[in-house]
Amino acid sequence: MSLSRRRFLQGTGAGVAGTALAGGLIAAGARADTANSAAGDSGTAVSIPFHGEHQAGVLTAPQRAATFAAFDLTVTDRSGLVSLLMDLTARSRFLTGGGAPPDLGVGSPPSDSAILGATVPADGLTVTVSVGESLFDHRFGLADRKPARLTTMPPFPNDALDPAWCHGDLMLQICANNADTVHHALRDIAKRTRYGMQPRYRMDGFVSPPRPSGTPRNLLGFKDGIANPTASEADTLVWVQPGAPEPAWTAGGSYQVVRVIRMLVEFWDRISITEQERIFGRRRDSGAPLSGSAEFDVPEYHNDPHGKAVPLDSHIRLANPRTPETDKSRILRRAYNYDQGFRSNGELDAGLVFCCYQQDLARQFEATQTRLVNEPLADYVQPFGGGYFFTLPGVKDNTDHFGSALLG
Fold this sequence. Notes:
With 408 residues, the chain is an alpha+beta fold. It has helices at 5-12, 78-97, 179-193, 234-237, 265-268, 273-280, 315-319, 362-371, 404-407; strands spanning 65-73, 126-131, 170-176, 197-206, 254-263, 332-333, 336-342, 348-358, 381-391. The chain has one domain. Helices cover 19% and strands 18% of the residues. Mean pLDDT is 91; it is low at 1-42.
């Protein structure tokens, strides 16, 4: 290769090259939950159930558009937090179901922005609410109820974290079939909760359509999300179970990791297809592992102990070595591409909002992330934001609200 990776990074001011895509951009990928596999292709009328043991937006097949918005709370006591979460529940319940906004009369501001028309369509909308470690400080008297494994996300080797883009008391993951539905939902929720929470950072994302078929691609041109755990494995890999060494209220929730990862796409475009494929361990055109011929072929590493077919330091091999021990560290990933235009230095500002869910941060995300430290892909990606959160258990019915078990 004629271009030095490190020299390129120094020349563009990228600083420390980012870690690989936080748990497997391909190998720990997001094959859609088959029960919801049509979510991204449905019409605007489709409504994903809001009530249940678990929140929607975790196992739900990724819709086409999303926003990840972190907030800091400005309410100052437990009663204020309860009111805020009740209001957040009420708006999420209405928006995900769709319907006609109330008419408040000619002398009042309209109850809805009307950017989706006179009637709000459900449009496959999900609103997933998670809380950060900072929620369990002195403000609300919840220190003894903090999820056992919830911490502040540390910087990993190869990270370049910007404090303005990290952490938060609360994370909203809002997904829908269309970008205007996502915008409408965030705008509606922000309008009605401004008294109690203020925005910290936000990144919008999109899922590309399959090109030409199969799994969608990321902005490095590779199919992104081929080997995710299935819905049948969720109880062992995703959801906190009753009786776990956790506060009782956490059952039915999940640990969420959000990582905002800049991709050095212009640098990536300058290297050969052979090197790109060896970095990933997959063929760019088909998504097949270098040891196979089809997208969903399973690489059999025991037949390739020296990495002659799939390099030992390739992304898919490090992210998911496919051993009995590392099988327990698989994560459910739910990632979205982003495109923010240009950076101040003239480079394209594009990348990935990486999101994953798991039972145990140390056993799953952090174990995977540790295997990926200094992998070849780290020269082409730069994590700069995000955090650790705990996704609350589901809202059971019309009398329930987000966080009821936590605050009860």
